[in-house]
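Suppose you are handed only two things: the residues of a chain and a line of SMILES describing adenosine-5'-triphosphate. What would the bound structure be? This form records exactly that question and the answer produced for it, so the two can be stored side by side and reused later without any lookup.

QUESTION INPUTS
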Amino acid sequence: MCRPLKAPHNDVIALSSVPSNFTQSVLGAGSTEEKGENARLSSFVGAMAIADLVKTTLGPKGMDKILQSMSRGREVTVTNDGATILKSVHVDNPAARVLVDISKTQDDEVGDGTTSVVVLAGELLREAEALVGQKIHPAIIIAGYREAAEAAQRRLQAISLDHSGDEVAFRADLVNIARTTLSSKILTSDKDHFAELAVDAVLRLRGSGNMDAIQVIKRVGGTLRESYLDEGFILEKAVGIGQPRRVENAKILVANTPMDTDKIKIYGARVRVDGIDKVASIEAAEKDKMKQKVEAILAHGANCFTNRQLIYNYPEQLFADAGVMAIEHLDFDGTERLALVTGGEIVSTFDDPTRVKLGECKLIEEIMIGNERMIHFSGCKLGEACTIVLRGASQHVLDEGERSLHDALCVLVQTVKDSRVVYGGGWTETQMSLVVDDLAAKTPGKRSLAMEAFARALRALPTIICDNAGLDSADIVSRLRAAHAAAPDACRAGIDIEKGTVGDMQELGIFESYKAKNSALMSATEATEMILRVDDIIKAAPRQRQG
Ligand SMILES: Nc1ncnc2c1ncn2[C@@H]1O[C@H](COP(=O)(O)OP(=O)(O)OP(=O)(O)O)[C@@H](O)[C@H]1O
Ligand SMILES: [Mg+2]
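ANSWER OUTPUT
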């Protein structure tokens, strides 16, 4: 018979007589525990510190940060991207880690809005801290925040615009979104150029959303404006000696195979021969093996052979004799991308040509970018394939340029999937804050205080954007609020950063993706809720090894 799992009643009575510091002895040696108010305070402080760290980078006039690695290379990164900054700082505070994670998730999901999400969560926590100070229980704050977030989300949905039916208007939306995303980044001075470039690249994907088909090549030299979009695929490699420099109607065998049977690979291996002619015969036998391999490869009928590994001189010569272009030592990324865009498969055995799928493209030729030779594959089987060649004065500029472009490409791919857009420049935040204020006015009880706090946190975003631009935030944000309150449905007012006033977002072309805004709102609320629920932080030391 099974014994009941429940402990007998008298055990419970025995536990209640345990002294209050009992938990200390439950936790292993070296473990620490923060309880109640202390735990909450340390969460608030940690999370707000992280939000303050990236706060100054928010908006088109936000500042950049220099990140310097303390390890040997002392590598320097100059960036404005919230996710990049947060990824590179090591934080010990658990609540701060939560914010770092939401920023990373935002980066993976939509690519943009990685600063906004952390700043919003920080502001929500700052407001919550004040409410806790007024002796409002976290559970009430959470309930109020949740209702407020739902109302804000409903409003966001209602005010989003969708032009997916009209191709021209939708393209204009995409260009505007790209310009807005790029306007807070290094590419801002050439944002029109890069916005067109990013939209062209994304529209080539025809909705597949496969960003791997867009390759970004960075080459130091020239200026950012000289960057361009190239149809096809570019490989940063050179053609082997004596081989054709141009191949039309190419059939490409993408391989990952060792060609070096001419080396005795086992170090220290000794081959004893009784005459110099035998050495020659070993060499001949090895050469013969290589020749057989090259013949097996040639039997596939490809006129271009690319290998992940080295090809070496003798096989290279054999390929040259057969009129086949051979390209050696591709990197992993290059090999996989080439296989993807030409529709081929990566091959490592060559016994049965019928089972091998060759890649195809119309033309392979050598080109020059800056003063470097590269190989250009055009008319690829995967018509989506394209390459963005970034030029710039230094590697740091190029790296930040690539990150910014990546943000724009990600947002555009998401917008092609979900075509809804909203105005930027504090428009959505003001709209949402108004409905939340409305809800607070109609809600009896302390929850309404939490809702008011939520609306204030939303308005903090346009305030910070103005502050970062050196504008009078109190004046602009209050005017923005008044304009929206006067005509909530028809108002298109947002911050005009250049003039330092309130401007028409439609005319200024400041658009953002609905998905980015929605996910920032929801992630920030969820993270805040999670942090608010904490009343105990236990840090357990790793168990000591015995013996
Ligand atoms: N020209 C502009 N005028 C006014 N506001 C703008 C303009 N361009 C962008 N914004 C606003 O700036 C905010 C975005 O700033 P920013 O790009 O620095 O941060 P993010 O997108 O949250 O994070 P990140 O780009 O680092 O991932 C948005 O709220 C957007 O509406
Ligand atoms: Mg941005």
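WHAT STANDS OUT: The chain has three domains: 33-161+423-539, 164-232+383-418, 234-381. The two ends are 42 Å apart (CA to CA).
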